Amino acid sequence: MRKGLFLVVVTLVVGFIFSPCTWGAPKTIKIGINAPITGDIPKVGEGTKYAAQMWLEDIKAAGGLDVGGTKYPVEIVIEDNEAKAESAVTTNLKMITEDEVLVIVGPQSSKQAVPAGDVAENYGTPMISPWSTNPDTTKDRPFVFRGCFLDPFQGPVLANFIKEEFGFTKAAVLYDVASDYPKGLAEYFKEAWEKINGKGSVVAFESFTTKDADFSSQLSKIIRSGAEVLFTPQYYNEVALIVQQAHELGWSNPIVGSDSWGSAETVELCGKNCYGLFFSTHYAAAGAKGKTQEFIERYEKKYGYVPDDVAALTWDSLGIVQAAIQSTGSLTGNIEKDRQSVRDAMAGVKEYEGITGKMTFTEEGDPIKCAVIVRISEKGEFEFYKSVCP
Amino acid sequence: MAENNGGGSVWVRTGQILTAFFSPIPLLGWLSGAVFAIFLEHIIGNSLAVLLGLPKIPVLFGFVIALKEPTLIPGAIAYVSLIFVIPICIIGRLSSPVTNLVAEKLLKLPLFFSVVFHVGILYGVLHFWSDISPYRVLTLKLTLIAVMMTLSLNVINGYMGEFSCSHPGFMALGAYAASVFSLVFFTKDRIFGEPLLSPVLGPFMFPLALIFGGMVAALGAMVIAIPSFRTRGDYLAIISLAFMFIVKSMIENLEVVGGPRGLSSQPNWANLPTVFIWTVLCIWIINNFVRSTLGKALNAVRDDEMAADAMTVNTRRTKMVAFLFAAFWAGVSGGLFAHVLRYVNPSTFGLQKLAEVLAMVYFGGLNSVYGSIVGAVSLSILGEMLRPLEIYKWIFIPLLLILVMIYRPTGLIAFKEFDVRSIVHPRKRDKE
How many angstroms separate the CA atoms of A295 and A318, rounded? Predict the structure, then answer.
């Protein structure tokens, strides 16, 4: 019995002496990625994961993240949130309290980013959602940022663009009433359009519900209303159906879309029907230059397809995180203090040169950045048409 | 033991030895073992984790880290057995003479005291277990809410034998009603503005908010209960599925509660004790309900509605009451859910939620309070533990469901009464 006790004591002592062997080396910086890898939108999760892995490769190639002269090893903690709100909250909490991440990138969709942002705010951990457009995500939350422009900016951009480009006065809108993003954007567009062209200039404001596939009644109404342009802020699968059905019903005027069109699938599903149409987005893949082109080529070579906006925005968000960590000058090793200093550095990011444009954060944590108007070319590529800045 | 059965006999013998070893431990014994394990974790958990090469105390029995980094598996297993398995078994067994005596003494008093005593210790165990990490608290809260959800669905799908798909709809109604109640009366927020009553009162009025949520859900259930008099089986399933979609699109079109953007900034009132008390209440009341005359009538309706009618069971009233009752508890669980996440969104209460809760009911077992608890706890904890497997998780969990359906077609623990007296009863020494 005594011998046993003695052995236990010796093991404990030896263990305690050797366990802090790593004290001398700089602590690993952990970055949490909260992505929908399974669930409704796995493609979004995949883009997020791939962009994060590419970023990590760069850091590893440089031998770690250089903060004030010390190279810190970096680790990425990727967690699957199953595209569910409650899972996004639990994964965020797990990454904050268990993995002790310094910064969280994600979740992507607003229905997850809003509740997950609450957790990040309560635990004082900086979080940046690359793709969430809901104003509630960052509102009154100093620790929460986002990587994309907001709908109140995108709506007027499109209204102005159509006015300048075509000089039209009557517009029609077709949107999904049950989905947060199209609905919000449709309303902002209407507001902006009516400001330019006067009341009643949106001659048709038609809606449908998620997973509807037949739009003929709404489209005939729109055609009868005498609208000169159709604005539809829908996702790629619906865009294909709407455009095809509109053309079948005899619509020949332009159709304009928003950043949700910016997926490789849009052209694949829509085909020739979509050639020559315009939409606003975060970046244009075809004809990109410099850093953007480099990113696209690398991604395509590695994963076999042109990255969509989620991957590009995630890449930029990670870039901002990196810049913020580096500009803190030094890390204390105390995770709470470091999170606070990274948050302060992030709020102070000025004119960050990302692949989706220059970014500066407002007080709310939303970036001021330019939107890009893209034209779908005759080859089915997303061509840069013009850039609109706030 | 026969020769040709040699391989199996070792297992049989081990099984016998283990049963003989553990059979004298009453529930109280297991609980005291758990209490000891929790204190052990609080005292030496951190140093043991460091010693075993783990980065931190493993949160969910080591699964989360072990699946991420396979090199940590031995450490995680060692930790779990040193802190939980071995102490619980040994303390449970060693204390069994004392705990049996205490359990016997308690049973001499009214059953109520014994139950409260056990539930109190159980809460203590959960509280101090989850004290280690906020992640444990959140997982526990969501698990308890899943228990309520599953139990209330089991009343309809198990005890009443109808296939109802409307539960996410009831939950949504409860979640929104309770949120609106607490936002309008006790919280300052963007949608409803200044609170009508003093926010200080809020936490005390929270039960009212939940009951209000439950009532609204029950009112919604009336819409289904009436056609359910005329249809059975597949048709009712379709009607209830339609109801779920109606609720979802109704909320999506209601701008007052945020539409598809969802409703956020609910006050943070759903702490662990609150959720625990409501879950215990739910289990207690539903268990009494299904064991009452009404519950037996419900079973009669399930087995043969005509025969039940002939035996003077008022089938209409029985079905109506069961539907509203189940919807009420679904609504309460929805209200708690909304206040735990502090954000609700109509798309949360869609087909995915339905599949989840149906899986919990059928995995655990139909017509059984036990089964619902087992199903909800195991599937929610499993879902959380296997998260690092990403896409493979969705191969593993469905495979498990298929296996359960093959070997136990009505679920793990189906058609078993949840008899509180036999649970808290002291165990007899074997063959004495």
Answer: 13
Largest CA distance in chain B: 80
Topology adopted by domain A151-281: Rossmann fold (3.40.50)
Other CB atoms within a 10 A radius of the CB of residue A170 amount to: 17
B224-265, pLDDT tens digit by residue? 888 777 777 788 888 899 999 999 989 988 888 888 888 888
Beta bridge partners of A208: A176
Closest to A219 measured CA to CA, from A255, A257, A183: A255
What are the pLDDT digits (tens) for B26-71?
888 899 999 999 999 888 888 888 888 888 888 888 787 778 788 8
Q: Give, for A243, the enclosing helix (H) or strand (E).
A: helix A236-248
Rounded to the nearest 5°, which phi and psi values hold at B220? -65, -35
Alpha helices in B304-368 (DSSP H): 305-310, 315-341, 351-364
**Which tokens sit at B424?**
């808290």
Chain B contact set for A118 (CB, 8 A): 264, 342-343
Domain boundaries in chain A?
29-148+289-369, 151-281
For residue B380, list chain A residues with Cβ-Cβ distance below 8 A.
none
Q: Are strands B263-264 and A371-376 parallel, antiparallel or unpaired?
A: unpaired
To the nearest whole angstrom, how far is the Cα of A87 from the nearest Cα of chain B?
A: 9
A contacts of B135 (beta carbons < 8 Å): 90, 93-94, 97-98
Distance CA B246, CA B166 (A): 10
CB A149 within 8 A of CB A201: no
Instruction: List the single residue in B260, B348, B387 with the smallest CB-CB distance to A85.
Output: B348
Q: What angle do CA B12, B15, B16 make, to 5 degrees?
A: 90
Q: pLDDT tens-digit profile of B371-390? A: 999 999 999 999 888 888 88
The one-letter amino acid at B110: P
Residues of chain A with pLDDT under 50: 1, 17-23
Give pTM, 2 decimals: 0.87
Q: Which of B43, B69, B135 to mutate to test the interface with A (most CBs of A within 10 A)?
A: B135
pLDDT tens for B309-353 read 888 888 888 888 999 999 999 999 999 999 999 999 898 898 889
Q: Does B2 touch chain A (CB under 8 A)?
A: no
Residues of chain B with CATH 1.10.3470: 134-422
The phi, psi pair for A370, rounded to 5°, reads -85, 150
Q: Which residues 6+ apart lie within 8 Å of A325 measured at CB?
A: A29, A65, A67, A102, A103, A331, A342, A345
In angstroms, rounded to a whole number, what is the distance separating the alpha carbons of residues A152 and A130? 17
A179: nearest CB among B56, B260, B390: B260
| Strand duo A70-72 + A127-129: pairing | unpaired
CB contact under 8 A, A19 and B50: yes
Q: How far apart are CA A223 and CA A35, in angstroms?
A: 41
Rounded Cα distance between B413 and B374, Å, is 8
Task: Using DSSP bridges, classify how beta strands B263-264 and A357-361 pair: parallel, antiparallel or unpaired.
Answer: unpaired
- Answer yes or no: CATH 1.10.150 is held by domain B134-422: no
Among B140, B138, B132, B136, which Cα is nearest to B49's? B132
Q: How far is B428 from chain A (nearest CA, A)?
A: 33
Q: Predicted ipTM? A: 0.86
Query: What is d(CA A185, CA A259) in angstroms, rounded to the nearest whole number?
Result: 10
- B321 — contact with chain A (CB < 8 Å)? no
Chain A 179-198, CB below 8 Å of chain B: which residues?
Answer: 179-180, 183-184
Structure tokens at A357: 């444009």
CATH architecture of A29-148+289-369: 3-Layer(aba) Sandwich (3.40)
- What is the Cα Rg of chain B in Å? 23
